[in-house]
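Instructor's aside before we start: the two examples that follow are unrelated to each other. I chose them only because their records fit on one page, so don't look for a connection. First example below.
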Amino acid sequence: MVLSLDGKGIVMRREDLREATRKAAENAQHKLDRRLSKGEKRGRRRMATVAAVYDLTPQARRPEDVLAELRPVRDVSKPRPRAGNKRVWASVEKSAEAVTSEVFEEARRRDPGCRRRWVVLVDGDRHQIARVRAEAKRRGMSREVTLVVDFIHVLEYLWDAAWCFFAEGDKEAERWVTERAFAVLQGRSSDVAAGIRRSATLRDLPPDKRVGADDCADCLIAKRSMLRCDLYLRQGLPIATGVIEGACRHLIVDRLDITGARWSVRGAEAILRLRSLRSSGDFDDYWRFHLEAEHARNHTSRYAGKPTLRVIAGGASS
């Protein structure tokens, strides 16, 4: 069973921003009246937390298989593991801690005896990791939960490091990244970090020219306990957050990020709930509940204890 979380910003009306963001928006002064300058923002965002819980059949793979899947044209004769029994949802109203708790509640509902392997996919954000660990500790499940850092995010760090050593567009950068990505998939993230930092030092790069390399090395060292990719691949565990990234796009970007849109918390939350129900295949069940609740609110509760008109053949009687 896989649990995953991510965050995505929604452009909000100023009065519906969180306090710190609202104050920053109020204090912001644009240099020009009719055009934004570099680094300026017209719309401020409030972060929504996106969650997913799904089942996945373990499928052992090798580092070579993962690198082959990253190519533009891949071997379709080797199908990827597909998520099943998937539920996705998002909230801009609730805190990230509350949504994290909901994710664990959904997983516990599916597996009350904790008999299955619980894998939590994270993108490397330290606040997100801290929330997951705190929730697992609160439930006494720190040992049962396996945290895995998304390999695609690590790959982006490797590309940022590559541009510290190669000119933009240099073909050698691609070979350099592939070699180090392969080493990370083999479980040698610490070795890769040490090599990158050593290369930057031997080339005598000034501090401002080695930022990407240092950031990459820091990430690989700090997350090494969650980058045991060799073990994860042998056990058939997922190492990429494609499901939650797709949920962010479908639930938020495709609908709430349309040009010129400015949302209230109440309006955005309503749209997110409806899209979550539809994406998770729960809309029909919800709609039956909605009709029953509307009938109870508008009719049953209003006429409770009062005589009602009963239609019979040939006329009506009270």
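Example two begins here.
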Amino acid sequence: MTAIAERAGVALDTVYASVGRKPEVARLLVETAISGTDQAIPAEQRDYVRAIQAAPDAAAKIDIYAGAVAAMAPRLVLVLGVIQQAAQAEPGLARLWAEIAERRAANMRRFVADLAAVAPLRLGLEQAADIVWATNATEMYQLLVGQRGWSPQRYERFLADTWRRLLLADV
């Protein structure tokens, strides 16, 4: 927090008054990383969410979401990694980390329900949502792109292919 105040050229109390404490700053960083802009955009107003909802078939929905995840992951990987590590010592950040995980899970349930509305699924909704939740985690991006040297495009194709194979029933 002190570094933020110094970089902004303001007093620490000014940071607290305008943005809040660490959990609020961290939440703002996550939201802006997701949106790719300098402001938080509610999920239902994000372009990729609207595109998924408008897509006519499950394969198109999966492709759109895989593209969105691949675009967001580089912006989120460091922010979420810091929050996850700091959550061990900061109760406010631990609550934020748990909130982020549950919000992601809820969003995956909505995504999978949207898929199920247009195509038969191989699994139940909860299990399918858990698979999307686990595979779209920034840890997966860090492992494959950061450590194994995959390109973001290869990672995107991997997600789309994995989700098609694991989620959609053979028809």
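The chain has one domain: 22-167.
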